[in-house]
C-alpha cells in the first residue's frame, strides 16, 4: 500500500496488547478493537511482526491446501493418509493458537487480505477518506460453480473492504448494519480484479457506502451498505 494506507494506527495507548484477551471497560471498541489499527488516524507504523517473517508463506500454504481440498476426490488410501497428516499438523498447531487480540491477521497489512484465510486475498493500493482501492483475487477455494466465484465469497470481499472504507472515512470503528450485493456478470477465479469502495455520506453514526468490482472494464458486481459507528463499549 502507499503512504495513505489503512495500516496507520491510532495512538499507542489505544492499541491492543497481548494482555487484552477479553473485552474490558478500557477495551472500549469491544470486539472491534483490532480494527483501529486499520484506521488512518495517526502517523504511526503498524506492527507487522506478529506471526514472524514466515507467516506469509505459512498462510499461502494453507490457502493452497484449501484450493486443493475444494476440488479433491481422494482415494480411500489417500484420504486416510491425509487425515493422519492433518491430525498431526492440527495437534502441532494447537501450541500456536492465541486469543483473537494477539492473532496476526488483524495487523499483517503487508500480506494479502492481512493474512486472514477467511478473506479472499486482496492488496490495498489506497485507503483514505475518499475511499479504498484494492486488487482482489478469488481462488479455487472460492468456487461457486462453472469456474465462477461464489456469490457469498464476493459478499465477504465487499463487506471487509466496505468496512475499511467506512472506518477510514468516519475515523472510527464501524460495524455492518446492512449489505446488498448486485451481481452483474460472472466473477472469474484466479484473476486479479479491481475493487473500489467509498463512503457516499455520513449522517451521525450512519455511514452509507458503495463499492464496485471490475474485471478490466467489465463490471462483475456492485454493493451498497450501511455501517454504524460504534459507541464506546459497543461490540
Number of helices: 3
Q: What general outline do the C-alpha atoms trace? A: globular
- What structural class is derived from the secondary structure elements? alpha+beta
Report mean pLDDT, rounded to a whole number: 85
Strand content: 25-35%
Ends apart, CA distance between termini: 28 Å
Helix content: 10-25%
What order do the SSEs take from the amino end to the carboxyl end, as H and E? HHEEEEHEEEE
* Major sheet strand order: 1-2-6-7-8-5
Strand segment count: 8
Quick recap:
With 235 residues, the protein is an alpha+beta fold. The chain has helices at 55-70, 76-93, 151-170, and strands at residues 122-128, 131-137, 143-145, 148-149, 174-183, 192-203, 206-215, 218-229.
Describe the structure.
This protein is an alpha+beta fold. Helices cover 23% and strands 27% of the residues. It has helices at residues 55-70, 76-93, 151-170; strands spanning 122-128, 131-137, 143-145, 148-149, 174-183, 192-203, 206-215, 218-229. Strands 1-2-6-7-8-5 form a six-stranded antiparallel beta sheet, with helices on one face. The chain has a two-stranded antiparallel sheet with strand order 3-4. A hairpin with a 2-residue loop joins β7 (206-215) and β8 (218-229). The radius of gyration is 19 Å and the shape is globular.
Features:
single chain, 235 residues, alpha+beta, six-stranded antiparallel sheet, two-stranded antiparallel sheet, 3 helices, disordered N terminus
Which SSEs are present, and which pair or pack?
Elements lengths: L54 H16 L5 H18 L28 E7 L2 E7 L5 E3 L2 E2 L1 H20 L3 E10 L8 E12 L2 E10 L2 E12 L6
Antiparallel strand pairs: 1-2, 2-6, 3-4, 5-8, 6-7, 7-8
Amino acid at each position: 500500500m502507499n503512504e495513505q494506507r489503512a495500516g496507520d494506527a491510532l495512538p499507542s495507548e489505544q492499541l491492543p496488547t497481548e494482555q487484552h484477551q477479553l473485552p474490558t471497560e478500557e477495551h472500549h471498541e469491544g470486539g472491534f478493537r483490532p480494527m483501529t489499527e486499520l484506521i488512518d488516524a495517526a502517523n504511526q507504523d503498524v506492527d507487522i511482526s506478529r506471526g514472524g517473517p514466515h507467516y506469509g508463506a505459512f498462510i499461502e500454504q494453507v490457502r493452497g491446501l484449501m484450493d486443493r481440498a475444494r476440488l479433491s476426490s481422494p482415494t480411500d488410501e489417500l484420504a486416510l493418509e491425509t487425515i493422519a497428516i492433518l491430525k498431526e499438523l492440527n495437534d502441532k498447531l494447537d501450541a500456536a493458537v492465541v486469543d483473537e487480540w494477539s492473532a496476526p491477521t488483524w495487523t499483517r497489512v503487508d500480506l494479502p487480505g492481512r493474512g486472514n484465510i477467511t478473506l479472499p486475498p486482496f492488496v490495498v493500493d489506497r485507503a483514505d477518506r475518499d475511499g479504498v482501492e484494492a486488487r482482489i483475487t478469488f481462488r479455487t477455494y472460492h468456487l461457486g460453480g462453472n469456474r465462477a466465484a461464489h456469490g457469498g465469497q464476493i459478499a465477504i470481499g465487499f463487506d471487509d473492504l466496505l468496512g475499511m472504507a467506512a472506518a477510514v472515512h468516519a475515523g472510527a470503528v464501524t460495524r455492518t448494519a446492512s449489505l446488498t450485493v448486485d451481481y452483474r456478470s460472472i466473477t472469474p477465479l484466479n484473476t486479479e480484479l479491481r475493487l473500489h469502495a467509498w463512503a457516499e455520506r455520513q449522517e451521525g453514526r450512519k455511514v452509507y457506502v458503495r463499492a464496485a468490482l471490475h474485471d478490466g472494464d467489465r463490471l462483475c458486481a456492485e454493493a451498497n451498505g450501511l455501517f454504524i459507528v460504534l459507541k464506546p463499549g459497543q461490540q
